[in-house]
Every structure is written in structure tokens, then in C-alpha cells.
Amino acid sequence: MGELFNIEKMKKSISKAKRRSTWKTVLISMIVIVVVLFSSILANGFITPLLASPVQNAFYQYNQVKGANEFIGVEEFYPGILGGENYYKKYKQVGDRIIYSGEGGYGYGLFRDEVLGRIGSRSTGFTVQMDKKPSYNELGQRMMTFFYPQLNYDVVNNDLLLLNEIANDKLVEMALSFDKGYTSSEAMALIPKDITKTWLWVNHIEQGGKLYSINYDENQNPLGKLPLTLNGQDAYGFSVINTDGTFADQPAERFISAIDSGAKFNSYWQQEFQNLKENIAGEDDKLSVNDLVINGIVVTGTAESLKQLQNLPFIKASSLGVVIDKY
């Protein structure tokens, strides 16, 4: 009977039972945490690519239709929790060489937007197009300018004349604006065969679209309309060569496919794709190769080879881009 009421023994038994219960709870909790954590990692690994796919596809399509003679050469991927960020570097194809032309990034997922929260940008380190003066990007590279065939300008760039001042050990990028719109095959046939054609500028302004800006005096009184020019980085078009310099297979068809695909993806660029499709396709709203009107072209080569283009009647304007060493 005495042992039945042994208080010390009872305390030890209760303490031992509590320890067992505590360790059991801890073990179960750890198992639950591990299972939840492992399941979350698996779920995130499955969900994040689904969130990334439409944005990445839209981004790829966007870079196939915009930016004269540029392509994405390097891309870095940083997936996170239910989203991520991708960063890229752009390059230009100039003759047999490629040249770095800038970089950027975009986000995707539940906690990031495509523009990574940017509300704008500002730079005081380079000039902008004004009074036909050269324009430069943040790397100090000269940027090309296009002139619309359907507009009348008081002055246009004739940078083909600058070829006389460029040594023949340099490779030159040049944007040519045509006197009128041409088909893709017509535009390619206009340029001598021994000159490298890299990129075609597609007209994206619908009939009657706004192509003028209003000029104001110092008192903000309107002085009249100024015809717009187009920076090469903002131009729509497509590359006719691959990144290795070989001729691209069905480039016009790929341009149309990129617009159609981009218009379907829910992304930051979707509305721009839809507007582009609507403006180019016309009244039937069906985009085809026959709808493409080529306003200009980008060519590359040595200064001597590009001199063949001087004084050709179909060239309305010419704008010098980057100039680099041949080797």
C-alpha cells in the first residue's frame, strides 16, 4: 500500500510521461514542418514556371518585333517565391561582329510586375533627337533615326555623306528611310546584293494616324505642326538575318506570328501587341504578309561598300548608327 502512495515515484512517472509527450509533439511538429516545407518547395517549383511562361513568351515575342537591329544575347533567371526576375543583355549585329547595346530586366508572378515597380526613368548623360542632331544611348552609341515616307520634312538626315569621312577599317550601321512603302521582297531587292541587309522597318501607323507634334514658342503659343521622326529603338520591324549572320527563314511570317502570339498573352505588352496588330492588319483584322508595308531598312558593312547607296533615288533619308572596328 505504501508504494501506491509513493509521491516521488508518481512525480517521476508523470515527468517521464510529459517528456515523452513533449518529444512526441516536437517530433510530429518537425515532421509536419518538413512535409509542409517540402510540399511548398515542390508547389513553388511547379507554380512559378506557370507564372513565368506567359510573361517570358510575351517578352521574347516583343523583342522580335521592336528595336532596330537588336537581339537578346544573354538572359539570367532568378526565380523566387511565386514569381521571379529575369535580366538580359542586348546586342547588335554589325558586319561580322556583334556589339553590346544595353541591358534590362522584367519581373513576373504574384509579387512582381513586368516593369519591376518602375514608375519612369531619367537620364542627363546623353542627348536626344532635336533639330536633326545625332542622338546617343546611355552607352554613348549613336542611335539611328527613321523618317516616315508619307511625311514632308524641311530637312532630313543624309548621313550617307558621312561615309566619305569614315576609314575603311571600320564597320558601319546605317538606317535607310524609303521614299514610299514597299513589300518585303521589293525592299530587299532595292539594296545591292553585296551589302548586308539586317532589319526591315514596318509601317505601324494606320491611315490617318497621328504623325505630327505641335511646336510651341516660349509663351506656349502653337507655332505649327512638326512631322515626327522615329528612334530606332522604338521602331517596329523584323530581322532578316540570324545571330550568326545567316539569312533567316521566313522572317516576315515570324514577325506576324510574334504579333499574333504576343496579343494573346496577358502581359504588360499585350495592349501594344493588340494595337500593332490592329493598325497593320487593316479593316479585315487578319494579319498577313501582304499587310506589311516596309518603310525602311538597316544595312551594315564597310564605309566603302555602303557608298554604293549614295544618291540612290529611293532613299529619302539615311541615319548613321554605330561605327566599330572591323577586327
Give structural notes.
About 2% of the residues have low confidence. The longest helix has 59 residues. This protein is 29% helix and 30% strand. α3 packs across α4. The strands form 5 sheets. It has a 5-stranded antiparallel beta sheet with strand order 12-8-13-7-14. A 3-stranded antiparallel beta sheet has the order 1-2-3. Strands 4-5 form a two-stranded antiparallel sheet. The chain has one domain. It is built from 5 helices and 14 strands. By secondary structure, it is α+β, with helices and mostly antiparallel strands. A hairpin with a 2-residue loop joins β2 and β3. This is Anti sigma factor C-terminal domain-containing protein. Pfam families: Sigma_reg_C.
Residues in β-strands, percent: 25-35%
- The end-to-end span amounts to 104 Å
Secondary-structure content class = alpha+beta
How many structurally independent domains?
A: 1
Mean pLDDT: 85
Helical amount among residues, as a percent range?
A: 25-40%
Low-confidence stretches: 124-131
Total beta-strand segments = 14
Q: What would the principal axes of the Cα set say about the shape?
A: elongated
Number of helices: 5
Global Rg: 30 Å
Element-by-element helix/strand order: HEEEEEEEHEEEEEHHEHE
Domain Sigma factor regulator C-terminal: 163-322
Protein name: Anti sigma factor C-terminal domain-containing protein
Keywords: Membrane, Transmembrane, Transmembrane helix
Organism: Solibacillus merdavium
